[in-house]
C-alpha cells in the first residue's frame, strides 16, 4: 500500500508538477553567461534565437535559407489551405531533448539555454525556447513524451494557440521496462505502465492535445524461447482497451494512434507494420477505437515504402497521422532524418490528399538533426527543409491531378472490370460456373502492357 502511494506521488511529481506557477517575471537576456539579479535564469524573457527572424514564404526563386520556398501557409491548394493539409508539428524530444549523443560518442549540441541540469528552471527555460522556436517557424502544434516535458504546466497551457498534436508516454528508457511495458512478464511493470499512461492521457487532455500515440517501445521480444507470445499480445490488447475506457471516462475525445515499427529496440516489435497492427486491432475488437500513425523510417525498416504503409492504412480507414521522417538508404536503422526526397514527398502527399487530409492528425517531424549539425540555426534549417519538401510534394500532387494522365492510366488498367461480367465479380456474384462459361466463349485473354515506364514518366513530369 505504502509502495503504491509512493509510486503515485512520484508519477505526480514527474508529470504533474503542472501546477508550478511562474512567479513575477525578471527580464534577463537569454544567455547563461549573464548574471541576472536574483539568479532567476528560468525567468528569462529575452530572445532565444536572436539571429533568426519570423520565417516567411518567399517563393521558389528565393536564395534565403531562412525562408520558405514552397510552403505558403495561407495559400489554397486543392481546395484547402496548405497549413490545413499539412498540420505540421515539432517533436519536442528530438528538437529540444536530442543532444547528438550516439552509441559511440558524447553529446554534440550545446544549446545556449541548456545548463546541464534537470531542474525545474531548466525545464521552463527550455519550454520558452521551444515556444519561441515554433512561433518563429509558424508552427502551432507539437508532440511530447511525458518524461521529456515535466514540469511546467502553466507555460505549456498559457500559449493557447500552440497545442499538442499528440502526447505519449515514454515506456522504454527506464530499466523497469526492459522486458516491455504492457507486454512485460512482470505484472507490477504492467501496472506501472498503466499508471503512467493514465497520467499521460490526463496531461494530453489538459493541454488540449488532439491525439494520443502508442508506439510499442519495447513491446516485442528478443527470443521466442523465453516468450509466451499469445499471453503478451492478450495483455497488450487489454492494456489498450483499458486506455480506451479511461480516455472515455475523462472525456478526452482525441484519436488514439498505434505507431508500427518492425524492430529496434527489440528484435521483433509486435506492431511490425500497418497490416500486422490492423490484424491485431481486428482480432481484439479495437478497430473502431484506434487509427495508425505511419512513420516513414519505420515503413522502410519493415521492408515497405512509406507510400505502401500509408496506402495500407488509408484503404482500411486507419490513416490518422504521419511521423514525417526518412531513413538513409545505406543505413539499416532508424536514422530519423528530415525528409528531403521530393519524389517520396509527392507519393506521401498523394496518399494524404486521397485521404482528404490527416486532421485531427498531422505531420509530426519525428526527425533529428545530424549529430554533426550543431548551430542553433540548423534547428530552423532542418524544419524549413522538411516543411518545404512536403509542401512541394503537395504542389506536385495538384499538378498530377490537374493533368490527370496518371489517374487515367490507372483507371484504364482496370477498365475490363467496368464490363457487365466485371461488375458481377466486383459485386461478389462472380461464381465459378459462370466464369468458366465465359472463358469457353472468350478463349485466351489478350493481356495489355502494365505501362510502368509510362507511369514513371508521367509521375516524373510533375516533380
Ligand atoms: C521511435 C519513435 C518514437 C515515437 C514516439 O522510433 O518513432 O519517437 O514516435 O514514442
Ligand atoms: Co515516431
TrEMBL record:
It is an enzyme of class 5 (isomerase). InterPro entries: Xyl_isomerase-like_sf, Xylose_isom_bac, Xylose_isomerase. Keywords: Carbohydrate metabolism, Isomerase, Metal-binding, Signal, Xylose metabolism. It comes from the Eukaryota. The keyword Metal-binding applies. Its EC number is 5.3.1.5. It catalyses: alpha-D-xylose = alpha-D-xylulofuranose. GO terms for molecular function: metal ion binding; xylose isomerase activity. Residues 1-23 form the signal peptide. GO terms for biological process: D-xylose metabolic process. The keyword Metal-binding applies. Belongs to the xylose isomerase family. This is Xylose isomerase. It comes from Dichanthelium oligosanthes.
Amino acid at each position: 500500500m505504502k509502495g503504491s502511494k509512493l509510486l503515485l506521488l512520484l508519477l505526480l511529481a514527474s508529470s504533474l508538477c503542472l501546477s508550478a506557477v511562474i512567479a513575477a517575471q525578471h527580464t534577463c537576456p537569454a544567455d547563461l553567461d549573464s548574471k541576472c539579479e536574483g539568479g532567476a535564469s528560468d525567468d528569462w524573457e529575452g530572445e532565444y534565437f536572436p539571429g533568426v527572424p519570423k520565417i516567411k514564404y518567399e517563393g521558389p526563386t528565393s536564395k534565403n535559407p531562412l525562408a520558405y520556398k514552397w510552403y505558403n501557409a495561407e495559400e489554397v491548394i486543392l481546395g484547402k489551405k496548405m497549413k490545413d493539409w499539412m498540420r505540421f508539428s515539432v517533436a519536442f524530444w528530438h528538437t529540444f531533448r536530442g543532444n547528438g549523443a550516439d552509441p559511440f560518442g558524447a553529446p554534440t549540441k550545446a544549446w545556449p539555454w541548456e545548463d546541464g541540469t534537470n531542474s525545474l528552471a531548466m525545464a521552463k527555460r527550455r519550454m520558452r525556447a521551444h515556444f519561441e522556436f515554433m512561433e518563429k517557424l509558424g508552427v502551432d502544434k507539437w508532440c511530447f513524451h511525458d518524461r521529456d516535458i515535466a514540469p511546467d504546466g502553466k507555460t505549456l497551457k498559457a500559449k493557447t494557440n500552440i497545442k499538442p498534436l499528440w502526447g505519449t508516454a515514454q515506456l522504454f528508457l527506464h530499466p523497469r521496462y526492459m522486458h516491455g511495458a504492457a507486454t512485460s512478464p512482470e505484472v507490477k511493470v504492467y501496472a506501472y505502465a498503466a499508471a503512467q499512461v493514465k497520467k499521460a492521457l490526463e496531461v494530453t487532455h489538459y493541454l488540449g492535445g488532439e491525439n494520443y500515440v502508442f508506439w510499442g517501445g519495447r513491446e516485442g521480444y528478443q527470443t521466442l524461447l523465453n516468450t509466451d507470445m499469445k499471453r503478451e499480445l492478450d495483455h497488450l490488447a487489454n492494456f489498450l482497451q483499458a486506455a480506451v475506457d479511461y480516455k472515455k471516462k475523462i472525456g478526452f475525445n482525441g484519436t488514439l494512434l498505434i505507431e508500427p515499427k518492425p524492430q529496434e529496440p527489440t528484435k521483433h516489435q509486435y506492431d511490425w507494420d500497418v497490416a500486422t497492427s490492423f490484424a491485431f486491432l481486428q482480432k481484439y475488437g479495437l478497430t473502431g477505437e484506434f487509427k495508425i500513425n505511419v512513420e516513414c523510417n519505420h515503413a522502410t525498416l519493415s521492408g515497405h515504402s512509406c507510400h505502401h504503409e500509408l496506402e495500407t492504412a488509408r484503404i482500411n480507414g486507419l490513416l490518422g497521422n504521419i511521423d514525417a521522417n526518412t531513413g538513409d538508404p545505406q543505413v539499416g536503422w532508424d536514422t530519423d532524418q528530415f525528409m528531403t526526397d521530393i519524389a517520396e514527398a509527392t507519393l506521401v502527399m498523394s496518399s494524404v490528399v486521397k485521404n482528404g487530409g490527416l486532421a485531427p492528425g498531422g505531420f509530426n517531424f519525428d526527425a533529428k538533426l545530424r549529430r554533426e549539425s550543431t548551430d542553433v540555426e540548423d534547428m530552423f534549417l532542418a524544419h524549413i527543409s522538411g516543411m518545404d519538401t512536403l509542401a512541394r510534394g503537395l504542389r506536385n500532387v495538384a499538378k498530377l491531378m490537374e493533368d490527370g494522365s496518371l489517374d487515367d492510366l490507372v483507371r484504364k488498367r482496370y477498365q475490363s472490370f467496368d464490363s457487365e461480367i466485371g461488375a458481377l465479380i466486383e459485386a461478389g456474384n462472380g461464381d465459378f460456373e459462370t466464369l468458366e462459361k465465359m472463358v469457353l466463349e472468350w478463349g485466351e485473354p489478350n493481356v495489355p502492357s502494365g505501362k510502368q515506364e509510362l507511369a514513371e514518366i508521367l509521375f516524373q513530369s510533375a516533380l
